[in-house]
Design brief:
Blueprint lengths: L2 H7 L3 E10 L7 E10 L5 H13 L4 E10 L17
Antiparallel strand pairs: 1-2, 1-3
């Protein structure tokens, strides 16, 4: 089986992080970086690893981070509907 599929079954979902950081040569300016990866909420181990790398290796100091997370595999939703649908 595909390893990404197995991770999704075990609770991983698509995580998007909007990372604002200060430009190294112009500290008063903010730049935006979008990071997207399969990660496990609410601890976000992959994102934390990436941010640790950023703070250790990249010159642009972090300003703020906004995170969105969506599980891709979840129980199906079913809604009963009254009525007749005619298909031609």
């Amino acid at each position: 089986m595909d390893k990404d599929f197995l991770r999704q079954i075990s609770g991983y979902g698509l995580t998007t992080a909007e990372i604002h950081y200060h430009m190294p040569d112009q500290p008063s300016l903010l730049q935006l970086f979008i990071w997207q990866h399969h990660d496990l909420a609410p601890d976000f181990p992959s994102l934390r690893k990436f941010l640790d790398f950023w703070q250790r290796e990249i010159e642009g100091p972090l300003h703020s981070i906004r995170i969105a997370h969506q599980r891709l595999i979840r129980p199906a939703e079913f809604q009963a509907v009254d009525g007749i649908i005619t298909v031609h």
